[in-house]
Structure formats: C-alpha cells, structure tokens
Amino acid sequence: MTLGLDPATWGAVLLSLRIAAVATLCSLPLAIAVAWLLARKQFWGRGLLNGLVHLPLVLPPVVTGYLLLILFGTQGPIGGWLRDTLGVTLAFRWTGAALAAAIMAFPLVVRAIRLGFDAVDPGLEDAAATLGASRTRIFATVTLPLIGPAVLAGAVLGFAKALGEFGATITFVAAIPGQTQTIPTAIYGLLQVPGSDGAVAVLVTISIVLALGTLALAEALSRRMQRRIRG
Amino acid sequence: MTLGLDPATWGAVLLSLRIAAVATLCSLPLAIAVAWLLARKQFWGRGLLNGLVHLPLVLPPVVTGYLLLILFGTQGPIGGWLRDTLGVTLAFRWTGAALAAAIMAFPLVVRAIRLGFDAVDPGLEDAAATLGASRTRIFATVTLPLIGPAVLAGAVLGFAKALGEFGATITFVAAIPGQTQTIPTAIYGLLQVPGSDGAVAVLVTISIVLALGTLALAEALSRRMQRRIRG
Amino acid sequence: QGVTVFAAASLKEPLDQIALTQPDVTVTYAGSGTLARQVMAGAPADLVVLAHPDWMDALEQDDALLPGSRVDLLSNEIVLVAPQETPALDLTPGALTDALGPDGRLAIGLTASVPAGIYGRQALISLDLWDAVSNRLAETDSVRSALALVARGEAPLGLVYATDARVEPTLKVVARFPQGSHAPILYQAAVVRGENEDAAQALLLALQSPQGLTAFVGAGFLPAGQP
Amino acid sequence: MIDVAVQKRLGDFTLDAQFAAPGGITAIFGRSGSGKTSLINVVAGLLRPDAGHVRIDGTDLTQVPVRRRRIGYVFQDARLFPHLSVAQNLAYGGTHDRDAVIDMLGLGALLDRRPAKLSGGETSRVALGRALMSNPQLLLMDEPLAALDTPRKAEVMGYLERLRDRSQVPILYVSHDMSEVARLSRTLVIMDAGRVVRAGPVAEVLSDPQAVPIVGVRDAGAVLTGRVQAFDADDDLTQVALSSATLTLPGRLGALGAQVRLRVPAQDVILSTQAPIGISALNVLTCRIATLIEGQGPGVAVSLTCGTDRLLARITRRSARAMGLRVGQEVHAILKATAIAAADVGTGDAP
Amino acid sequence: MIDVAVQKRLGDFTLDAQFAAPGGITAIFGRSGSGKTSLINVVAGLLRPDAGHVRIDGTDLTQVPVRRRRIGYVFQDARLFPHLSVAQNLAYGGTHDRDAVIDMLGLGALLDRRPAKLSGGETSRVALGRALMSNPQLLLMDEPLAALDTPRKAEVMGYLERLRDRSQVPILYVSHDMSEVARLSRTLVIMDAGRVVRAGPVAEVLSDPQAVPIVGVRDAGAVLTGRVQAFDADDDLTQVALSSATLTLPGRLGALGAQVRLRVPAQDVILSTQAPIGISALNVLTCRIATLIEGQGPGVAVSLTCGTDRLLARITRRSARAMGLRVGQEVHAILKATAIAAADVGTGDAP
Ligand SMILES: Nc1ncnc2c1ncn2[C@@H]1O[C@H](COP(=O)(O)OP(=O)(O)OP(=O)(O)O)[C@@H](O)[C@H]1O
Ligand SMILES: Nc1ncnc2c1ncn2[C@@H]1O[C@H](COP(=O)(O)OP(=O)(O)OP(=O)(O)O)[C@@H](O)[C@H]1O
Ligand code: MOO
Ligand SMILES: [Mg+2]
Ligand SMILES: [Mg+2]
C-alpha cells in the first residue's frame, strides 16, 4: 500500500503525517490554555505572552530553528533538563520535528481558539455556575463544546502549517530519512537539483491531496459541530 | 531618524513594514469575500477553493515562491498579461514581495474571518432585512461590524506572517538590497556571514519589537471593538 | 545603471567587501538553485556567481548567459570540523564511527542538493567511508546549519567548507578531504544576457583581479584551478 | 385585507394554517408551541413555505424578498443590533414618528446606551420602537408587550390603536393575553397544533358560548361597541351609549361621538332577576337570555341579548338553578364600572 | 428568612435596595428598568455588590461563590445551553423531581430537541424546568411565566405552591403580573428606580388603600385566607370559611381543612347598602367601612373590615356619593364566585 510511490517518498509522507498529527494534538491543550489566558485574564506579562506566541510567525523560520536549537538542543537549558530528568531527546528525532512544527503552528492555533473564546456568551457560563457546576465542569461542558468549531479550525490551520513546515524543522533537527525528513524537506532538496521538476510535482501533488483531504474532513466535522450548536 | 541602524538595515525595516501593510490591507477585502463564500455559500468547487486558500500553508514556502515565479514572473502567463495590459511588473519588485506575503498570509486571514462569520447570529441579519435593508447594507451595517474583531484578528495574523515571510519572498523576488530585501531575508543573508551574530540579534530584536507593537495596538483596538459589541 | 549580482549565499562576506569598492553594485544572495531558477525566470541579474557548475549548465542550456563569459572564479575545500578538544582524525571508517560515538551524527548539507553535501557525498564514497556513515548523517539545508549543529554540540562532527570552518572559534578542523576525492569545488561566474552586459563583464573582471581575489582569499577561498 | 394559506414542515411539527382577515389588528392566539411564531415568520418571508400564499391588501407577497415586504417585525426575542446604540437601532429602518415613539416608549434616557446594558423590558421597548419607526406597511408583533409593566402596556396599546386607525397598517399580533387581544383586535385567529381552529371577528368568537373551551374559561367574554355620549369632568366618568342602554365608565374614554370598544369578560358579569338597588355598580343592562350552555365543571355560560348587543356571562350552575334561569327570560346584567377600566377599553375599529 | 441590603452602581443606574422577608415566596414588583433583575443578580452572586450583604436563612452568602449558593435561577432570557438537548439542559444541575417537572411543563415531547428549535414558550419552560430540577435551596425567578399561556401558567403556579409548601425553598419571584404575585407570594417588595419603596406581607400591601398609587389601580386588592369547609361534587363548588362568612367558589380548591388564599381585586368588589336578592353572585359579605380614600381620577378606595378579614373595594366617586358611604357604615360586599376562579386562588402559606 504505497500508492506506487518509492519507499523513501512514502516514508516521508507517513512521517509528515505523523509529525503534523502529533504536533497538532499535543499542542492543542496548551493552545487552549494560552488562548483562554489571553482571552479571559488580565495579568502582568499578558502582552509579553501574546508576543511570545506570535514570535514564530514574525521571525524567519531559520531563526526560530536556531532558537530551538539553543533552547532545546542536548546542550541547551531545556533540552538538557529534558534529557536528564525525563530521558527525552529531541535532537534528530521526529519528536524534535514535531516540536518545531508545533511551535511554528502555535500562533495560528491560539488565534483561532481565542476567537472562539471571545464568541462564547458569558451568560451561559453564569447559568452553569448557578446550577452548581464547578469551574472545571463549566469549562468542560459549556465553554469547550461551544468553542469546538474554533478549536477545530485552529487544529486544521495548525495541521496544515505543520505539514508544510520546513525552515525551522531542518535547522533544528536536520533531515534524517525516517526520522525527520518530511515532505517539505524532500521537496526542498529536489528543488536544488536541476531537472527534478517531475519529482517535485509528484510531492507537491501529494501535499495538495493531503491538504484537501484534511480540509474536507475538517469541514464535515465542523458542519456537524455547528449543527449541534445552532440546532 | 534611523534609530542608530545602518541605512541598509533601516531600509529593510521600512520595506518590511510597507510590504506587510500593503499585503494585509490589499488582501483584506478579498479575504473577507472568500471567507464569506466559504462560511455562507454552498457551491460547486467550494472544497477546491478552500483547498486553494490553504495551499500556501501546506506547501513549503519555496514551492509557493516558485509557483509565483512561474505564474507571475515576466515570462509567466499572469505576469506577462499584467505587464502587457497594465504595465505592472511584480517579479523582483517590492510589489511582488507584497503579493508573496499576501498569499502566504491569506489562509490565516481567511480562517480568522470565517470564524467571525460563523459566530454572527443570522437572526440579526433577518431583522435588518425586515427593516428594509438591502443585502449590501446588511453586510456593511450588521455583518461587517459584528465580524470586526475577527477581521482584526485576521489582519494581525496576516500582518505578522507578512512581516516574517521568508521562503516564498526570497524565491519570488530575491533579496535585492533596497528593493526587495526584507528583515527576514536580511537576517538570512547575515546568517551566512561569519561573526554576524550581533547584527542578526539586532534584526531579530527589531522584529520582536515590531511584533509586540503591532500586537499591543491590535489588542487595544480589539478591546474597543469588543466593548462596542458586548456593550 | 548599476550592476546587480546574484551570488551564492556563502560568498556574502568577501563579495560585500568588493562591492564597496565598486561603483553602484547590488548583490543579492540566496542558494544557488534558487538564484539559477530566478535568472531563468527573468530576474534582473547582470552577473551570477554560483556554488556548483550543474546550475551554471542549466543556465547555459537555457541560453540565459552571455556566451563565453562563464569563468571558474574560486575553489574551496571540504573538511571535517569538531569541537576544539577533539583530536585530529584519520579518514577511516573506524576512526569516523569512533568519533561519532554510539549515537552521534555527522552534520552535512543535503547530500543530493546542497553543493557542500554533494561534494561531501562524493568524497565519502570515494574514500570508502559512505557505508560507515550513510545512516549516521544529519542533513541540513545549508552548510551554515550543519556548522551550527556541531557548534551547539548536537553533532560531534560536521562536513563543511574550509571557509566556514574558520569562523567558529569553538570548532577546529580535524580532517581535510583530499582534492581528488571529489569533483573540483568550483564557484563559477557568468554574465547574464541583457542590457547591462558590459558593466557586468567589467565587474567580473574586477572580481578576477588580484584585489578581488585578495578579498576572497582573505575569507578562506582558494583561487580557481589551484588545489 | 390579509389572506394567508401556508404549509410548512419543521421537524416533527407541521404548520398548516389559513385565515383571512379584513385588516386592522388580527390577533393570533394559541398555546405555547401552537405555531404562532412560525406563522408570522412565513408572513415576514423569513421562513419559506412549502406551499401556499401570503397576500396583503391584494398584493401577493409570497415571492417578494423580505426587505421589500415593508414589514415591521417585533421579534419575540427582540434581536437588537448589539453593536449599535439604542438611537441607531431605532433609526435603522427609518425615523418615522420618531419623537412620539421615543416618548411613548420612554426611551429618551436610553438613546446612547448599548443593548447589552438594557433591562428586559427596555430591550423589548426598543425592539418595538424600531419596528414602529420603520413606517411599515404591515406590522408583525410577537408578544410585544409580554415584558412590559401594566402602565406601559396601556400606553403602547393606545399607540397601536391610534396607528391602526390613523394609518390603516394591518397588524398581526401574537399574544397570550386576552385582554390585549380583545381590546386591540378586530379579528381573532386561534391556533392549535399548527392549524387555525377558529378565526373570525373578535366579538363574535369571544362571545360565542361554544368557543369558551377554545378561548379558555377566564378569557371568554363579550366585546361591545359603543359611542361616547358625555363626559362628567367632576366625577371623571364617561357615558357610553350602547344599543340598549348607557354605561357609565371611569375616566375620559374619547372625544364626544367617538367609538369605543369594551371588553366585558364573562366572569365579571353578575346576573340578577330583580333590578338591583343601592348598589355601587353603576351599570345595569336589561337583557334577554339567548342560550344557556352547561360546560364541564361548575360553570354555566349564559349568552345574552341586550338590544342589538350580545353579552356573555359565566355563573355557577348552582346560581343558575337557584335563580331558575331559562332561555328567553329577562334578566339584569350588572357590570361594575371600575372593572371595565382603562385597560379593557379600546377605541374605534368596529368589528 | 431572606435579608438583603445591597448597593451597586451600573452606569447611570444605582441599585440601593434593602428588604427582609420571612421566607416562602417573595414577589419583586416594579416597572421596567426599576432594578429587579439587577437585584436578583446580586442575590445570585452574578453581580458583585459595591457594598451590603445577602443572607438567606441565617447564612451569609455575600462571599460565597455562585456555584456554592445552591440557587436555581430562571433567567429572564432563558440561557439554555445551545449545544445540549433539552434533556441534557434539564439534567445539567440535577434530576430532582424529574418526571413531575417534565410532566407539569409538558416537556416530554421536546426532550431530544435542541434549544434552537424550540418556540418562545417552550424555551422558557425548559429554563424553568432546569432550575427546578437542580433542587435549589433558593429559587430566583425572573418573569418565568411571561411567555406562557394561561392554562400552563396556572399549572406552574400550582407546582410552585406545592414546592414552597413542601420543601420550604425560599423563592424570589420577579413579575409584572399582580394576579401571579397575589396568588403566590407571602411578601411583596415593590421597587422603583433602584430602591425598595414598599415591602411587607402581600395582603397588607395590596389592601392598603395608601398603596394603591404604588401598586397600580388595577392591581390593588385584598388577599384573604380561608379554610376549605366543604365540597359539593354535584355543583363542583367549594365552600371556604373566612372569619366572618363562608364563600362559595367554583371548582375543588383543596382538601377539607386546607388553607387557601383568595385574591379579590378591589375593582371586582361591588358594594351594596341593602342585602341583594335574586342575584347570580353567590358571595355576599357583611362588612364595615374602615377608611374611604379619594384618589385622583374617578375612583374611591374603600377599605372594609369583614370579621377579622380586610377587603379593599374600588368604586366610582359618583356611586360613593349616591350611596352616601361613610366610615363606620355597614355595607354588603358582593363577590362574584366565578371571578375568583382558579387563577386567583392559591393554597396555604398564610402571610
Ligand atoms: N451594565 C449596565 N450599565 C448601565 N446600566 C445598566 C446596566 N445594567 C442594567 N442597567 C440599567 O439599570 C436599570 C435596571 O435594570 P434591571 O435589568 O435590573 O431592570 P428590571 O427591573 O429587571 O427591568 P425589566 O422589568 O425591564 O427587566 C435599567 O435602567 C438598565 O438600563
Ligand atoms: N426548526 C424547527 N425544527 C423543529 N421543530 C420546530 C422548529 N421550529 C419550531 N419548531 C416547533 O414548532 C412548534 C411551533 O413553534 P412556534 O415557535 O411557531 O410556536 P409558538 O406558537 O410561537 O409558541 P410560543 O408561544 O411558545 O412562542 C413548536 O413545537 C416548536 O418546537
Ligand atoms: O514561516 Mo514559513 O516561510 O511558512 O516556514
Ligand atoms: Mg413564539
Ligand atoms: Mg429584568
């Protein structure tokens, strides 16, 4: 079941999907938390947090990659701590690629979810409180379902961005077949070789198909959610 | 008034701002239109349009850059037409950089605005119709103000992305100092030079300051809009 | 009218120096592949300097260059770098794998597309090192990124140009690849067809002049044809 | 002239309603969930009917887009524009009769406020004002007064009466409150489970003893039309001439000669076989019993003819027996002046 | 025992309300915008007062977070959870008395529906059910019946009476409808412009002729408490013993010996100097005039003592003059049996 692709390409496709999926799913809870903080709370450093979240959007991806290397590399403060306490290594692993993708996608996901929070009628949360619901329960049973479509939109944006991420990933974890070589890396490599336009076209087509599939799935899910909410 | 920056850097900063601003403002109307189509209409090719909009997110930026070069280059079908009929050249001009930035930012802007459309109560548009308002008037006086915060959020995302865009820009318009060299492409150039970490740090700091400034401005604007809407 | 040069990113430092001495020269840097494609798409370049002859061939086939203007400009060396405390290395499979340790990787430009990676791959194959390291590579989009991986201690070894090795004080060259182990590393330059051919030709001559070459050599490059 | 015949499926619910009304105010009455809002949404064009037509004053609106129907719709859920001030909300559809509307609805102090900062009643007043100021050719009102207090209700009803009489705007008026219905409307349409179960002139439907079960025991009663004959400023009493007698009612009810409508709920009418004396009720009508209908429960519906007027009384079976009431008998109907006070008196628009 | 004293600024509006109520149902009455919703929002904890306290049954709730106050709040604007079905909305706060509530409110057929597909009245019934099923220690109801039709209103009022009597839950009840207020509540709190202008036992406030201008002419009236003495199944009439007389009222009003409350609006009382004969009204009380107060307009408020019961009558000045009424005089108060029908009769909870 490799759809007629050569194994290396097929491997890159599968890896890209895995990295994008893990990046999206793992960053979602944090994105929701950060979006909630930004949408609902006033605190010292709020502007800074907001800026930090958006930074990967503003900086060239290579710079983000370098910063990741400095912070999360085996010698970096966070990377060293992760290795020493949790035994987790990110460098040259697909997990590192997922981290890079997640960080690059983070601003998009947070923004979408934040718009969702802004659209929730606080009166409904008040109503739940009068019915005795704890803050956690209100969040889980009222707020979260209501921001569902926004979370989904954020996840889609994030997934797409993670699928396409290249600059930060290759700088942080290089391109190692089977570990960190994703579709964009493969395409980039091919583009540097004269006369490889055919191979590029194949990979680009795969990307497009993946994107269309993801979007179609997300649209269907989103419509169902909207129907649940709108009635 | 160059804040102690050398003229080339200062030029890149101003150019980046100009490109990001033009890219954001010019693409906004189209983004609103596309978001409206996607949020409100069912039509043949809707899924395709949705896919097309998201494509720049999924493809490596370099690929988008090449596609732009192929389509909008002086030899390209659209580029040739633009040159012959309107006398406009995009490739290797700052206008082309703005086009690249706009296209790369487009999916982010559209998504945010689309979430805005989804959150508008159709009952209010119905109410406006019973009061005799034409579709245009309803859109201008009810829908648009209500999606204001979402449009702003989209614009901020788009502006930030446009400020940070690198891959598509350097591919489509290169990094010609004084003409198309933006902050990210300048950073890229500096990264190739041994011992230029100081200069890179300066540019990264400028990026961060610009981002924080933009975000602060947007937050203030957004809060005012929210207050208008929420009362 | 000024001259616009499209040049491989690794030439930035010396080329910027030379440009300062010339009237009205603008240099644009990027990867060689990117530049070549842009020139084919009609970029306003008057002079191109690329890091690999393959892309020059492609430009020539596209009839984008002024016939006869293509010259070999510079050469370079590829070397292995490692942290300062690392002893010098024999180019043998055992020594390499020892230096990499149990799970270390050799940082290198993309071996299929980045010029330094292409030359490196040729050298590793011809020295019978490829089998020992081919699954221990960390390929990057530029030599600079490979260098950074070694400098940050992520990779114990990196295969880079000699010009790059000079700039990281924390690293040292632990092995040099003999010139014969790979195709000659050639930076070629050519004048692009267009209205500015004469000025471009003049600038090209200036690059080849002794003063020009001094700047390149100062940055660690070798004059072309000189091993 | 309103002519509506529409079908529409909504999930399990089917709206299948038809009625015609001569104009003026048509009340739509019915239990919660009977389809009143759905019906007027179809009339407004907000709900596309599966079949049928909507004609107003001879114009077929069925295919006309909402914005060209020139309707003023007071939604059950207000639907104020949250981003506009009260003043901007009011002016959205026009500024017809602006100052009078603002004054009547007491909106003067709220004009700069945003809807989120309004109380429930204030919200519904602004919604009402917005519809009125758009100078509609057809007014649709979905329980517009439910959130208002009694004095404000009375004021608004007065305004609606003037609107109806002055500008001839047909009004479809959804309400649960029969005193509103009886006072204002010319036609009464009763809905149940998506269908129109009774439609006709208000006075006829309300005073029909057969309709008591549909209208509800407490809401049945006659609607009388009379003419203002005199006003006694000292006592603040108005004399209203009916066909068979003259009633004395509190307050100034209209100019001399003006037509007024009086709702007389069946349960407020006391019957007496003898002419009462020394009693505080100022109004005693001599009537003849037309029908006597025993319903379920303790009550008997007695329909009376007093001159050409028809009255409905609801008394206990025990009293009917004790008094020996029978069809054709002459009885005295005692109406308390103060019971037919301001809220139950409407002006003009004879059915 | 409810003890509230709170201050809160909201833009130009200042809420500065204090009252104490012994428990049972406390009605909050007042014009639109007088601060009723703001007041109960403070009690609910949704609006933080600038100063003051809220104490319920001796517990100071002022600092207690909303979710621990154990309140059931029926919001003026329903606030159903749009993403949950009716059944899930109902069960959100608990499933206390589930089947009875669903049955009473007629929600059985709606359980799988989403709020967006409910009619206005259905929405408010679900909101009511949700609050009731949460088994609250304090019930806050903001015009809960405004969107309901008459029969449903009566049913819900019956349920609230049983709830009040059975579970001793104190209820704060905002309403514009005095017949609801009189029937249900023990204490009446009247608000105006953010302040409490009158608070006290319902019967006292409503039958106080001085309070007529505040309560409103049409809403003033006595609330009598009696005991069920007999039920005549044939005629479907209940006899209720008051202190001075026995009333005969339609329908079965309660078990033998049960306490009932009767609202007798002042405008429904007819006075007669002579004992009436041959009349359909079954109830005649012999009373003595306690006070006579001429208001503005055509009316005179006559306060009567009948045994230990107090009654209020509103008659025209002209009648008062014609009958020569004066303080201390003995008169006959005629109450129509059917006028005090189901909706105005409440059970238990003597003020
Ligand atoms: N956030 C606010 N800012 C300014 N004014 C407010 C705010 N909230 C309420 N008000 C004003 O306070 C007054 C009292 O409002 P409240 O909702 O308590 O009235 P209410 O008695 O419940 O009226 P209704 O019967 O119309 O629901 C109103 O005039 C309202 O406009
Ligand atoms: N979109 C829908 N899908 C399914 N059922 C619906 C839908 N809209 C309304 N209904 C149902 O149709 C019936 C009629 O609704 P409608 O809103 O017309 O009632 P109504 O007479 O206005 O009631 P109320 O007095 O409570 O406002 C209700 O039972 C309602 O639940
Ligand atoms: O920020 Mo990029 O240029 O989409 O990797
Ligand atoms: Mg309705
Ligand atoms: Mg209120």
The side-by-side strand order for the widest beta sheet of chain C comes to 2-1-3-10-4-11
The name CATH uses for the topology of the largest domain in chain D is: Rossmann fold
The CATH architecture of the largest domain in chain D comes to 3-Layer(aba) Sandwich
SSE run of chain C: EHEHEHEEHEHHEHEHEEHHE
Q: Whole-number radius of gyration of chain D?
A: 21 Å
Helix content of chain C: 25-40%
Relative strand content of chain C: 15-25%
Structure description:
The complex is a heteropentamer, with two copies of chain A (231 residues), one copy of chain C (227 residues) and two copies of chain D (351 residues). Chain A has a single domain, classed as Orthogonal Bundle (MetI-like fold). In chain A, 80% of the residues lie in helices and 0% in strands. Chain A has ten helices and no strands. The longest helix of chain A is centred in the first third of the chain and has 34 residues, at 7-40. Chain A starts with 6 loop residues before the first helix and ends with a helix. The mean pLDDT of chain A is 88. Chain C is 38% helix and 24% strand. Chain C is elongated, with a radius of gyration of 18 Å. The termini of chain C are far apart. Chain C has a six-stranded mixed β-sheet with strand order 2-1-3-10-4-11. Chain C has a five-stranded mixed β-sheet with strand order 7-6-8-5-9, with helices on both faces. Chain C has 227 residues and is an alpha/beta fold. In chain C, helix 1 packs antiparallel against helix 10 and helix 2 (32-40) runs parallel beside helix 3 (53-61). The longest helix of chain D has 18 residues, at 150-167. Chain D has nine helices and 20 strands. With 351 residues, chain D is α+β, with helices and mostly antiparallel strands. In chain D, strands 6-7-8-3-9-10 form a six-stranded mixed β-sheet, sandwiched between helices. Chain D has a five-stranded antiparallel β-sheet with strand order 13-12-11-14-20. In chain D, strand 9 (187-192) and strand 10 form a beta hairpin. Chain D folds into two domains: 2-206, 3-Layer(aba) Sandwich (Rossmann fold), CATH 3.40.50; 221-347, OB fold (Dihydrolipoamide Acetyltransferase, E2P), CATH 2.40.50.100. Classes of the chains: A mainly alpha (231), C alpha/beta (227), D alpha+beta (351). At the D-E interface, helix 1, helix 4, helix 5, strand 15 and strand 18 of D face helix 1, helix 4, helix 5, strand 15 and strand 18 of E. The site of one magnesium ion (MG) has 4 residues of chain E, from helix 1.
